[in-house]
Specification:
Blueprint lengths: L3 E12 L2 E12 L3 E5 L6 H8 L7 E6 L13 E4 L11 H9 L8 H7 L15 H11 L7 E5 L7 H16 L3 E5 L3 H7 L2 E6 L2 E7 H6 L4 E6 L25 H4 L7 E5 L2 E6 L2 H11 L4 E7 L2 H9 L17
Parallel strand pairs: 3-7, 3-8, 5-6, 6-7
Antiparallel strand pairs: 1-2, 1-4, 8-9, 10-12, 10-13, 11-12
Length: 329
């Protein structure tokens, strides 16, 4: 059997009358890359604080390497980066890494670690002189200094530009490919979609879904028909219809596309139209019969974002149990 590195068993966390986590069960086997998703106030950060020993559950239990995560011995194989971290502004990047490395028996070589996380050129800089994005990369890199067996990251790429974010994804994929276990939260759904094998959706302190990325997306019976329609008028911005090759009369424009039967909603981005439907085959037939000019048609299943919105849609927003600021996210 695969070893369980971390788990929550019927774990709840209350702050007075506020329920931040409500009877959560979660197993993290060795070798998995797990993405935790949820709206603000869902309980993600509270769950991570329990798994990493920062807080203890009000009821139920949480385990790390088979024991209490609040005990230092259990955290020896853990690497973690919380949302908010502080760095000593006058220490140089290399000095900070060396200081953290001094707490481990077999740390990663400093130069190797800085190179992997794109910080080699900043090794001699004081941390106070780093940009916000560079500081964030450094705090994430520190989670890997001690060759941890499991790394727990809370919003690791917040504040990073697209290039830096993708570079960090590469470092996380490398860690996972070499046998590491990774749990991360992110408000970038494309990040979880790009990295995670398994997705756990949390809302109002409860686990709503826990399955593979493919299975989570398949819970939403919506497909997207993506196509390109005639261009828009440079002055009005309205879609321009094409012309029938035989009669020379105008053909319906993209406004007509969005009115086809079976279109649940539509979006326009960079000259393309996305049509959301539960029956993409019938929609394509209706599109052809309508005579509307189009090209470059693509059909895709629901994205993780669409599945997430559907899973967390609450008929009554007052059902949420928000925790105090900074405690349940």
């Amino acid at each position: 059997m695969t070893e369980l590195l971390a788990r929550a068993v019927n774990a709840s966390k209350h702050y007075g009358d506020v329920i931040a986590l409500d009877s959560v069960d979660l197993d993290i086997p060795a070798g998995q890359l797990v993405g935790l998703l949820g709206p603000n106030g869902a309980g993600k950060t509270t769950l991570i604080s329990l798994l990493t020993g920062v807080r203890k559950p009000t009821s139920g239990r949480v385990e790390l390497f088979g024991g209490d995560p609040r005990k230092p011995a259990r955290r020896a194989g853990l690497g973690t980066t919380p949302q908010q971290t502080g760095l000593p502004e006058t220490l140089r990047v290399r000095e900070v890494v060396d200081f953290v490395a001094g707490h481990f028996a077999d740390p990663r070589p400093t130069g190797e670690l800085l190179e992997q996380f794109g910080l080699a050129d900043s090794a001699a800089k004081q941390t106070g002189a780093l940009s916000g994005g560079q500081q964030r990369k450094l705090t994430v890199a520190l989670a890997f200094v001690g060759r941890p067996r499991i790394v727990v990251l809370d919003e690791p790429t917040t504040g990073l530009d697209v290039e830096a974010r993708h570079a960090l994804w590469g470092a996380l994929r490398h860690y996972h490919a070499t046998g590491g276990t990774l749990v991360l939260t992110s408000h970038y759904l494309e990040e979880v979609e790009a990295l995670a094998q398994r997705v756990v959706v949390i809302d109002r302190g409860r686990v709503l879904a826990d399955d593979s990325l493919h299975a989570i997306r398949s819970q939403v019976a919506t497909s997207r028909v993506d196509l390109r329609t005639p261009g828009s008028d440079a002055v009005t911005g309205k879609p321009l219809p094409g012309l029938d090759a035989v009669t020379g009369k105008p053909l319906p424009g993209s406004d007509a596309v969005t009115e086809l039967p079976g279109v649940l909603r539509s979006e326009r981005t960079d000259g393309r139209v996305q049509l959301f439907t539960q029956d993409p085959d019938q929609l394509v037939r209706d599109l052809v019969l309508s005579g509307t000019p189009f090209e470059d048609l693509q059909i895709t299943t629901a994205s993780l974002e669409e599945a997430f919105v559907a899973l967390t849609a609450a008929p009554d927003s007052t059902q949420r149990h928000p925790a105090p600021a900074g405690d349940a996210r």
